[in-house]
């Protein structure tokens, strides 16, 4: 995969595998067969991806949003997928969690006759919990163990 990116705030990249950042979002959209979003939600990024920006992407492109829900206007996705402009979308979060039952993307996704039914993956932005609950427990226990060892508590039994 040829990785390209646009960051309006970062002009110099020292990491060798990366190409220099593209000058504009339009340039990025025009070249992105797979667009993966990694940005905070701000006034600038609210609905950054919408009907107009999707139209600037190559036909048959893929959209992946693991950033914040409102970075993508998800109401634009059913039409983009039905038209074939987007081949598929992976949406890790919607603007409102839980979403309303009549959300256009969910309505399309639940309908086996709509192309979104087979070409959209929606998750409730919960990947953090699946992977990190054990990390939180382990790191918390390790921190307590280190504190007990450092302070030489007589009743603290240290086990690895």
What does this structure look like?
By secondary structure, this protein is of the alpha/beta class. Helices cover 34% and strands 11% of the residues. The protein has helices at residues 25-31, 51-55, 77-82, 104-110, 116-119, 127-151, and strands at 34-37, 61-65, 86-91, 120-122. The protein has a 4-stranded parallel beta sheet. Strand 2 (61-65), helix 3 (77-82) and strand 3 form a beta-alpha-beta unit. The model has no long low-confidence stretch (mean pLDDT 85).
Question: What's the SSE blueprint?
Answer:
Elements: H1 25-31, E1 34-37, H2 51-55, E2 61-65, H3 77-82, E3 86-91, H4 104-110, H5 116-119, E4 120-122, H6 127-151
Parallel strand pairs: 1-2, 2-3, 3-4
According to CATH, what is the topology of the largest domain? Rossmann fold
Q: So how many helices?
A: 6
CATH class of the largest domain: Alpha Beta
The CATH superfamily title of the largest domain: NAD(P)-binding Rossmann-like Domain
CATH architecture of the largest domain: 3-Layer(aba) Sandwich
- Indicate how many domains the architecture comprises: 2
The helix-and-strand class reads alpha/beta
Q: Determine Rg (CA atoms, Å).
A: 21 Å
């Amino acid at each position: 995969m040829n990785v390209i990116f646009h960051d309006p705030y970062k002009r110099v990249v020292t990491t060798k595998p990366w190409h220099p950042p593209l000058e504009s979002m339009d340039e990025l959209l025009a070249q992105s067969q797979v667009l993966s979003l990694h940005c905070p939600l701000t006034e600038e990024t609210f609905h950054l991806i919408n009907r107009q920006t999707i139209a600037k992407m190559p036909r048959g492109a893929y959209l992946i949003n693991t950033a914040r829900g409102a970075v993508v206007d998800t109401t634009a996705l059913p039409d983009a997928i039905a038209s074939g402009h987007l081949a598929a979308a992976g949406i890790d979060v919607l603007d409102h969690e839980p979403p309303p039952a009549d959300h256009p993307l969910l309505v399309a996704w639940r309908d086996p006759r709509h192309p979104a039914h087979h070409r959209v993956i929606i998750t409730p932005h919960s990947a953090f919990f699946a992977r990190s609950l054990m990390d939180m427990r382990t790191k918390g226990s390790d921190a307590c163990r280190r504190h007990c060892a450092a302070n030489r508590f007589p009743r603290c039994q240290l086990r690895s």
